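hey can u check if this looks right to u? its 132 residues, i copy pasted from the old doc so theres a chance i mangled smth
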Amino acid sequence: MSTLIDTHAFDYINVLDKAADASWLRNEAIANNIANIDTPYYKRQDVNFEDALNQALKWTHMSDLDRQVHNVSMRRLSVGTYTDSAGYSYRVDDNNVDLDTESAELAANQIKYNGIANSIKAEFQNLRTVIK
């Protein structure tokens, strides 16, 4: 007899969980950028989960999304912060943080995080429906 875990019902939830973690980390990076807006020589930090996800899905060499998500390596979806445009600065103090850009990125990231959280909730609701 097959169990719920054997059905790979949590594949999308696992990927969405990694996306939520990355979005949360990006929120922290952006907040840190804003906090360091007046710090000389500070270079903005960022997180790029989307590229890691695209690479991980391509690495599976599967044709359809369900198989790609099933075969994706969760290790490949672990992302961290990186220094963005380390050699670029338009300010005299070599700081490359722009408040308007960071504010827009923060708002967009919060919308993305809410969307991910709603998707996780929907996946669990689907599982609950199937179990009933």
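The chain has one domain: 5-131.
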